[in-house]
Amino acid sequence: MNVGIIGAGTMGIGIAQVAATNGCKVWVYDANAKQVETATVGLEKTLTKLVDKQKISAEKMTEILSNISIATELKDFKDCELVIEAIIENKEIKTKVFTELETYVSENCVIASNTSSISITSLGAELQKPERFIGIHFFNPAPLMPLVEVIPSLLTEKSLAEKIYNLMKDWGKTPVIAKDIPGFIVNRIARPYYGEGLRIVEENIATLEQVDDAMKTIGNFKMGPFELMDLIGVDVNFSVTKTVYNEYFYDPKYKPSLLQQRMSEAKLHGRKIGKGFYDYSEDAVKPVAQKDEALYQQIFLRIISMLINEAVEAKRLGVANDEDLELAMQKGVNYPKGLLAWGKEVGYAKISETLQSLYEEYQEERYRQSPLLRKM
Question: Which residues lie below 8 Å from residue 300, measured CB to CB, with a gap of 6+?
């Protein structure tokens, strides 16, 4: 298969690596030509490390690199059967690229977006053939993270989702099919992990180190919310939160955090610049959380209740089937278990009681329960 990738950032070159590893001929284009060169040099270094660690052979590295070509303009995608866009999360910019791209590719070429939160229907609606447009959302880093959300729009041809689902399986991924709602599965359900952690810190209930430590020690999460935001990029996480909030017509459940906005304004974007909620400079000493068992239980129950409630609401709205809802959170953000199973384990009655208590304390719609939760 001939595959085009628009955008040579971390996600774009990662998706290119996945496609090239699976025998596809890949063309990578970026409006910034220098970025493509930088990305391909970076990919070569990454693959060299994999060879050194004996994860792949030297022959496989040569094959992957030979499968990737640099495109100097969108016209170079004329022979592609699939083009995946992975550029800035801006609807107007993406739409402009898609409408131009459509004038060059064949009628049978599938056009896809790797957007993490923008409506697939709205992105594809401007195309002459919106039925060939679909969301294919990889997770960062694309070569390592198994989950891919496949999102058909209201206008997508009915059989296309299954075709892309099967293609992702052929590429060694774990695909799930999601309804075209803001945030899809993972970025919708995961919002409280960050949002509630931020609120706990903003209200001086606990330090960010304590929030992270509580979720890791009690919940067995691999990373706490602040560590994870630093890894994702504080600015990127904030941007997704704002998009989900706006797309849900300012639903208080997804209200962005002022603390996160200030961090973004200060350009404290996390690991990628060496400083975010934590300092990643060479001589930095990571603060140690002051352990408090009662406080940790409070933090964990509050955040996990919000997450489980969100998963139950997604189930009620048919965002995906139960299996895909569970799979998405485990494979997309490395949750230790599926949230519906976790709800049974903690007890749905206890989750309901916790949310009711928060609702009475704050008098905010943020803590409203899914109508399905009380019935489970």
Answer: 214, 215, 218, 219
Per-residue CA distances from 62 to 42, 48, 133, 189 (Å): 15, 10, 32, 40
Q: Spell out where the chain has E strands.
A: 2-6, 25-29, 68-70, 82-85, 110-113, 133-138, 147-152, 174-177
Asked if the model's pLDDT at residue 329 lies above 90, the reply is yes
User: Cα–Cα distance between 180 and 33 in angstroms, integer?
Assistant: 32
Residues with catalytic roles: 116, 137, 149, 187
Q: At what angle do helices 58-66 and 33-52 cross, to 10 degrees?
A: 160
Tokens of 21: 């590893």
Q: How many CA atoms lie within 13 A of 118 on its CB side?
A: 21
Amino acid at 375: K
What does the block give as tokens for 241? 């939160």
pLDDT band at 192 (very low <50, low <70, confident <90, very high): very high
Q: How many residues does the chain have?
A: 376
Helix, strand or coil, per DSSP, at residue 66: helix
Is there a contact between 310 and 189 (Cβ–Cβ < 8 Å)? yes
Listed residue (302, 180, 277) closest to 225, CA to CA: 277
**Per-residue pLDDT tens digits for 22-57:** 999 999 999 999 999 999 999 999 999 999 999 999
Q: With pLDDT > 70 as the criterion, what percentage of the chain qualifies? A: 100
Nearest to 6 by CA among 34, 39, 31: 31
C-beta separation of 175 from 310 below 8 A:
no
Cα–Cα distance between 199 and 201 in angstroms, integer? 5
* Cα–Cα dist 242/147, whole Å: 23
The tokens describing 341, both together, are 């199973």
The pLDDT tens digits for 157-168 are 999 999 999 999
Give the strands of the sheet with 25-29, arranged side by side.
Answer: 68-70, 25-29, 2-6, 82-85, 110-113, 133-138, 147-152, 174-177
- Confidence at residue 117, expressed as pLDDT on a 0 to 100 scale: 84
User: Which SS3 state, helix, strand or coil, does residue 49 take?
Assistant: helix
